[in-house]
């Protein structure tokens, strides 16, 4: 085994110069440590910048939600309650002809005897989109491929020193809250239209039971504007005066269009291209059949159902496109712009990292020159 020291000509002991491979390994380790340190600094800077970009501090979002949005929502629900359950808004008394064939259809019975009872219909209309949105948002947040897109579209809101609003919670509250607001707003529109127009149902003369032998109905073409001519059940007669637009058709189409827009705009399926069309078309078809069933049971006219379809679809399209931005994140465009700006920045704005090959070459050359000079000396 060779000693690391050698004896010189004068008897002095001089350290044995290390081999070139040892010098190269020492230089390589120092280069790797310097590069790793620089890389760690860069990673910390980039991660800190990304974290700051995905977070937004706001102290007004919760007060605005409590004192503005919840107040508007409560007022909408209260107005819908007054339309549905009270007699504050009087129904317009519309005239008729005693021998109008369009108003002599047989009475189909109370609403609870219809093909789809109102209670079941309203529960399905309210629960189906809520369930789809809830499951869809949680599924997208759990999947890695869609979670990155969701986080890029939504910023985490910091409302204080300890309060954070997760993007998942924000999206669920926003989409379901807007749907609920639109549902009550649609009900208000329908009730307002029925109260203002006082349109007569196809079975109106059957439940009105006017006195055809009286002076008012003696002439076939005499228009009756007297609301006290009916002798039937007052509650049923008032219900027969609220036909335009069809409430069941309006609410069902509103719910179907809203959930269809959510499915087509949010859910991504790479394995099957027919799953979304089948689900969306099935939902729209169910709403369409509900409207047709109202006509076939003589509960509404065709014009009532068509007007309900147009009204419900219009409200859903307005809320989906203008209020929730087609179910996209509110920060999707600025985030993309910031990413492009970072990519276009010149390299000199970042800490310069010397190439490990350049460092290794310079240090090896310096060590070689030093060793050669010592050997010559």
UniProtKB/TrEMBL annotation:
BP GO annotations = phospholipid dephosphorylation; phospholipid metabolic process; signal transduction
Pinpoint the Phosphatidic acid phosphatase type 2/haloperoxidase domain residues: 176-320
Name a Pfam family for this protein: PAP2
List compositional bias (Basic and acidic residues) regions by residue number.
13-23
Q: Per its UniProt entry, which superkingdom is the organism in?
A: Eukaryota
Q: Does the keyword Transmembrane helix apply?
A: yes
Q: What is the similarity comment for this entry?
A: Belongs to the PA-phosphatase related phosphoesterase family.
* Protein's job: May play a role in neurite outgrowth and neurogenesis.
UniProt protein name: Phospholipid phosphatase-related protein type 1
Can you name the source organism?
A: Bagarius yarrelli (Goonch)
